[in-house]
Design a protein that fits this description.
This protein is an all-beta fold. The chain is built from 1 helix and 38 strands. The structure holds (Z)-L-Arabinonhydroximo-1,4-lactone.
């Protein structure tokens, strides 16, 4: 087979950045927001099959997410390699404000990565470019200070954002020399972001994103003969977008590109995009792979086609390795609590030297109930994985003896703190064990409850792409009780719920603001895509 299917990384993996390793093969990082650990990193030999390698920020001393709101936290990272050292730059965002830019380094991309070095740099979406002379240039986007000044003139003078640059001395991790404003974007009134700089045949190309990360998202490019500018937008801008393809095109919101050359001499770009169903998407922004051809005028994305395809030709002259098709993340079976696919909300799970409410031991996950709930910004006792398929089934077996009506433990489906659904075991008004299913959205709560069986309980959530259905049964009991069919995947979709993430799901427990000594135990988690279409 000489084709592959897009996306190459499914589920919420926004703002992809890619680099080539000196020994061949590629590395890719994506955004992680309020989830811990931060910045998932993947390895590939062919740009198509990506294997989780771990996380760049996997220690509490590197990343403190306490109090971080949904969709704040770690935004758009860039990964680069230079003379055997790997660099990741990213932003820790609070209250949707940038400025918390940092750099971490490693000689082995599987870890460990250094402590962050915080940089005195405005804005978001930092990137690094190593020029042929070895100098390292830091770029990022920030507010355009002259945007409301009627006396400023020139192209994009009134645009809200600007891309800027300063040299970074990587020996000291300090900025040196002047700052340069590079470009304010190709589109009148649009915010320019996600800069990445490349050099081709002596010309510098600044690739950016514009139009917002929704339906008008686009890739634009400016070029210059000197690294510090002035940069001029290509006449062909935007060089890639799906904004003109109509609302029923299967891939939408395409933008935020990063380019990489293969050893065979081809250039490919990773970009983010979404796959809505009936106008709504729950899977978040996923990673798509698209060919790029360099022409006199600059990079041509998807040459001869003009858009990202669900089926694309494979990169040339990279042999397939037998037996591997996609990421290791697709199906998670029992015993895999240690898989890199799991994340927590803001809090690390068990690691040596720290106490944590989230403990995995062989086949069991133990969650000590925390006051923090899914609706807040405090650490939550939860272990969640991305929903990677429109059609899937997930289940887990819960052992829990709630001691008070504020205690609950179960399975959660989370878009953000204002849009999530849970099926949990708790206590009713008369102290009886009840299963409660709650869909919490901006429209209010929809709640159903049913008497809970004694003993261990199997909880399940399944989706057909249009609905989420929640079910339970006593372990060893054949009868399944369907709790609630949430008719609107849209309630948990980004179009309605907002934010930058996608749906995650898995075990959670909370004592809803109270202190508690209770522990909920989970075993036999399974997540399985249903059907063979890969969607
Ligand atoms: C990311 C920026 C963006 O930093 O969303 O819409 C931010 N664009 O490029 C978070 O993913």
């Amino acid at each position: 087979m000489t084709t592959f299917s897009n996306p190459v990384l499914t589920g919420f993996h926004p703002d992809p950045s890619v680099c080539r390793r000196p020994d061949g093969g590629f590395l890719l990082v994506t955004s992680s927001f309020e989830y811990f650990p931060g910045v998932p990193i993947f390895a590939s030999h062919d740009l198509v099959s990506w294997t989780p390698l771990g996380h760049v920020l996997d220690r509490k001393d590197q990343l403190d997410l306490a109090g971080i709101d949904s969709s704040d936290g770690i935004w758009a990272a860039t990964i680069r390699e230079h003379e055997g050292t790997y660099y990741v730059v990213s932003t820790l965002v609070r209250d949707r404000k940038g400025g918390g830019n940092f750099v971490v380094t490693a000689t082995d991309p599987a870890g460990s990565w250094s402590e962050p070095v915080w940089l005195p740099a405005d804005g978001i979406d930092p990137s690094l470019f190593f020029d042929d002379d070895g100098r390292c240039w830091f770029t990022a986007c920030r507010d355009n200070p002259g945007r409301n000044d009627p006396n400023t003139s020139g192209l994009g003078a009134g645009n809200p954002g600007e891309l800027w640059m300063q040299e970074l001395d990587t020996a000291t991790m300090r900025f040196v020399g002047d700052q340069y404003v590079l470009w304010r974007g190709a589109m009148e009134g649009a915010w320019v972001e996600g800069p990445h700089l490349y050099k081709r045949d002596g010309i510098y190309y600044l690739v950016a994103a514009e139009g917002g990360t929704e339906r008008n998202h686009a890739v634009t490019v400016a070029s210059s003969t000197t690294v510090t500018g002035p940069y001029r937008g290509l006449a062909s801008n935007p060089v890639l977008t799906h904004r003109h393809l109509g609302s029923d095109f299967p891939i939408q919101n395409v933008g935020h590109a990063d380019l990489v050359d293969t050893a065979a001499g081809e250039t490919w770009a990773v970009v983010l995009g979404v796959r809505p169903k009936n106008g709504h998407h729950v899977l978040g922004r996923e990673v798509f792979l698209v060919p790029v051809r360099w022409e006199q005028s600059g990079p041509v994305f998807a040459p001869g086609v003009g858009h990202i395809r669900l089926w694309e030709r494979r990169p040339a002259n990279i042999p397939r390795r037998p037996g591997r098709t996609r990421t290791d993340n697709a199906a998670i079976t029992p015993d895999q609590w240690h898989s890199f696919a799991w994340s927590t909300l803001r809090y690390p799970r068990a690691e040596s030297g720290i106490s944590t409410p989230i403990v995995t031991d062989g086949k069991r996950l133990s969650l000590s109930l925390l006051p923090g709930g899914l609706g807040g910004v405090d650490p939550v006792a939860a272990l969640l994985r991305r929903q990677e398929h429109h059609v899937f089934a997930a289940r887990v077996i819960l052992q829990f003896d709630p001691l008070s009506p504020v205690e609950e433990a179960g399975i959660a489906v989370v878009q953000n703190r204002n849009a999530f659904a849970t099926t949990s075991l708790g206590l009713g008004a008369a102290g009886e064990r009840v299963i409660v299913t709650r869909v919490h959205t901006g429209d209010g709560d929809v709640v159903t409850s049913a008497p809970a069986p004694e003993g261990s309980i199997e909880l399940a959530v399944v989706s057909d792409g249009a609905t989420y259905e929640f079910l339970f049964r006593g372990v060893g009991v054949d009868r399944v009780t369907a709790m609630l069919v949430e008719s609107g995947v849209r309630h948990l979709g980004t179009e309605q719920a907002g934010g930058f993430t996608g749906v995650t799901l898995g075990p959670y427990a909370t004592s809803n603001g109270a202190l508690s000594d209770s522990v909920a135990t989970f075993t036999d988690f399974r997540y399985e895509p249903v059907g063979t279409s890969g969607v």
